[in-house]
Fold each of these.
Amino acid sequence: GSFYRWPSDAQFERWRDQLPAGFLMAVKAARGLTHARRLRDPEVWAERLERGWRALGDRAGPLLVQLHPA
């Protein structure tokens, strides 16, 4: 999972290569962005999120951003 420990780019590529045909993978934003930093200074985390999502290629599904409770 991508919420508690952010996977490497290589891990996203391995997942892409192992997914069955027609399967899309959702990517959940890491808690480092949504909970620890509460969306402050998001550039580094946004870049990681985008790199991972793009590494999935045509297997990339929705991006999930679960925000910290108010």
Amino acid sequence: MTSTASTDQNTLPRLPVPTLAETARKYLKTVAPLLNNDEFNETKKIVEQFRQESEPLQELLLKRAQTEENWLSQWWLNKTYLEWRLNLPIYYNPAIVLPRQSYRDFDGQIQFAANFVHGVLRYRSLLDGNQIPIDRFGTDPLCMDQYNKVLGICRIPAKSIDRLHLYNKNGHRHVAIFYRNN
């Protein structure tokens, strides 16, 4: 039997909290090519001082990891998406690049658009019916939670941090089509 999107969701391991030593090592490896020797040595001193003083912060992360399904995901969502103020279509929205099409007439464009919407709705039906095969890294199952948030979700602007509204999949069945910016 093929595993589907929610089959193994509850059996996935939690995202581990990296150790302070691991985080410091990765940080130094990342910045090393960007710094000269003096700057890198100064950065190493600052990182070591941070490591010595930050054990209480590490403990807070470990506690959060025990109470949250994923200790990082809400912070990631907030900082990289909901608080960010760049243009959404260019920087954040999922996009599809389709092969160039040649249409004989306007009816060809309409037919292509109708087929595209039909394909999206078929995919939505597979999602709703839990028929999407689970993604894997080798043999290990990956979290499929994001698939349920691709369709039927709306970002609602707010002053300091936007919010997301996920519509009930049974109550809302609309497609918005924009034509000539209308």
